[in-house]
Amino acid sequence: MTSLFFWWAIGGSESAWLFPALYVWVGIFGVMAITQVWTLANFMLTTREAKRLFGLVGAGDILGGIFGGFLSNAVARAFGTESLLLVLAVFLMLCVALVLLIFRQHRWGPDREDQGPVGVDESPRNLLESFRLMLSSKHLTSIATLICVTSIVTTAAGWQFKAIASETIVEKDALAAFFGSFQGYAGIAALAAQLMLTSRLLQRFGVGATLFILPMTLALGSLGVLATGGLVAATFLKGSDKVLRYSIDTSSLQLLYLPVPANIKIQIKSFIDTVIWRLGDGLAGLTLLVFVTYLGFTPGQVSWVNLAFLGLWFVAAAAARRQYLTTLGQRVREHRIDAERMSAPVLDRSTATLLASKLERAETEEILYRLNLFELGYQQASHPSIRGLIRHESPDVRAKALAILNAAGDTTLVDDVEDMLSDKHLPVRTEALLYLTHHSNVDPLARIEELGDFPDFTVRAGVAAFLARPGQAQNLSAARTMLDMMIDEDGAHGRPTRLEAARLIATMPEDFSSQLARLLADPDPEIARLVIEAAGELRERKLVPQLLERLGEPGCRDAAVNALSNFENRILGTLNDYLRDDEMSISNRSELPSVLVAIGTPEALDILTDNLFQGDSFLRFRVISALNKFQQAHPGIKVDNAMIETVLAAEILGHYRSYQALGALRDPLEQDDPAMKAFRESMDKETERIFRLLGVLFPDYDFHAAYIGVHAADSSVRDDTLEFLDTALRPELRGLLLPLVDRGVSVEDRILRADEALGARLDSSEEAIAALMHSGDPWLRSCAAYAIGTLGLGSLEAELDAWEDDPDPLLRETVRQAKAKLAAIKRA
Question: Could you tell me the pTM of the whole model?
Answer without folding.
Answer: 0.61
